[in-house]
Each structure stands twice: as structure tokens, then as C-alpha cells.
Amino acid sequence: MAVATIDFDRILHGTEASKAAAAQELVESFRSTGFVRLVNTSIPTSAIQQAEDWNHKFFKQEMDTKSKAVNIPSPNPQRGWSYLGAESTARLKNPGRLDLTDEKEHFDVGPPNDTSFPNKWLEDSLPGFQRFSEEFYEACQTLCLQIMAACEIGSPLPRGTLVNKCVPAASELRYNHYPAVSVGKLNQGKTRRGWPHTDFGIITLLFQDSQGGLQYEDRGHPGRFLPLQRLSDDEVAVNISDTFHRWSNGVIAGGVHQVGLPPLSEQQVREGEGLVLPVRKSTVFFFKAHRDEMVGALDSFVDEKRPKKYEDITALEFHKRMTDVLIKNSLTTPVAGS
Questions:
Q1: Which residue, 38, 80, 167, 292, shows the most beta carbons closer than 10 Å to its own?
Q2: Could you give the 3-state DSSP secondary structure of residue 293?
Q3: What is the pTM of this model?
Q4: Helices assigned H by DSSP within the chain
């Protein structure tokens, strides 16, 4: 099934009837595909482009420079630069596959002024990066709260049920960098740009570049992945993640996705395993519940026919549990080429 595209202005500024209809379309797209495309959101196209520009500026820094803001692998929320091999999305679905890696490095930003898990910056090398990232973080957090309010309208939830669980902020902004890689290396079966997985927040905002490669699993045909190309510069792809899955007692399941080969021309196909895929960039926002909120099934989704499936643990406990899986047996130091 195709992912719906929704004009988010209908939710922000439409009539009550238009807002309700758009909210129902939003929830239905999440339920049927795990994803939705949003256009005309509260985040301007210029900010999305600036995020891509800063992504490029950070990852062109030398390894010694990036290492000044390196994330130390642990179950805690990630902060700063994570090098190639620091995590593997394959382990979220296959915890025992310690031999599978991601061909990716990334930089993570938490809430501004977070004293529990402080952010890391390179102000001497990248003046302005912190200021932009904090502003973009707040813009993404605002959009996510707007999406939560829309989900309350489009589902059997009292107003405020979701929104109130998400303040104060505990989300994470991530800049992803996928280095150039040969098709031959990917075909060896030990590394991918991203293995099939679900994210473990509530929802994820995805801002893609033009390279392509993001794919979502067809719920009607498990194991079949369909491309989710960016269709416009202001587009925000959004996927449902594990916390929402738990809150909804499995009614709205997390969207399984991966980063595979982008659409290839006939000439590229002829190059076969010698083809080198260019650098791919994306900026993502992992929207998460407040750390002390419970992430078990909500009462609105529990009844005699659908008993409670998910226990009450805090959002932070769930985050640490999943992060520990991601980094299990990962590299503990950067390698040349990161």
C-alpha cells in the first residue's frame, strides 16, 4: 500500500471538519503502512536545507576533529559523533547477529541544556552549528507535538493523552552520513546502510537528501520493501516507532524500514558490483516520551478481546534497553575512514 501524502496545513489552519478528516487520514496511514508524508508543515524548506548543509559541514571534518565530540558507547542516550561500526540496526531484529554492521556514522543532539546527558559540540571548528541544531531541534519538537495532537483527534484518545507524555522534551536530533560504498561490498551481506528495523521512540521525522535508498516494508507482503523517495523539498517523512506501538497495544505497529540501494539507471545496473554509490545524507528526529513516563499499553487500547501486551516501564528504561542492543559488541574506537 502506498504511503499517504497529507497537507499538514489542513491540520494547522483548516476548519474543524478539515482538521478531523486530515487527522483520520494521518492515523490510517500510520496504521496501514507505518509511514506518512507531510508537506506544508511548520518547518520551512529553508531550515530543512540548512540541516542538510550542516550535515555536510560536520562530516567533512577530519577524524581527529570529530573525535573531540565522540559519543562513548553506552546504553545512555547518544550524544555527539558515532563512528562507522558504533552501532548496528540489524541487532534490533536479530540480537544474535553480532557480525552485521551499518555503513553509517552519525551525530546526535539531545534537548538544549540537558544536564543529565549533556550535548557535545565543536564550536571552535563549526561556529554556528550548535545554535542552528538547537533551533532545528525545537522546530522538530514542535512539529511532533502537533502530530501527537492530530493523532489524538484521529484515534480514540482523550485530548492531551499523548501530548502530555512528551514534555519536557527527551527527543534526539541526528545527522546521518552514509559514505560512498560499492555495491559489491553491500552484496557481501555483512554490511548495509541500514538493516530492516523499527525505531524505538514515538515517531521519527526523516529529512532525506535526493540520493534515495529509504525503503519501507509493505505490511501486506512482509519482507517486501518499497522505495520512499523524497518527492518535494519541504517533505517530511514520518514513521511510527516502538513506543507508539506499545502505547497502542500493537494496534498501530511500528514502521519497518531499511536503507537499501537507491533506484538505479540502466547504465548503473550494467556496472554491477563495481558501481560505487555516492554519499547519502539524512537528518532525523527521534521523538520520545518524557523520560519518567510509562511506555506500556494505554487503557484506551486495552479490553477483554485485546488484553494488555506491554508492561509499564519508563521511557528512559526502554531507551536504555534498546540502545544496549544497538551497540552490543560494537567497535569501541573509531577506525580510519570514519
A1: 38
A2: coil
A3: 0.94
A4: 9-13, 16-33, 45-59, 63-66, 90-93, 129-153, 183-187, 242-247, 266-271, 315-327
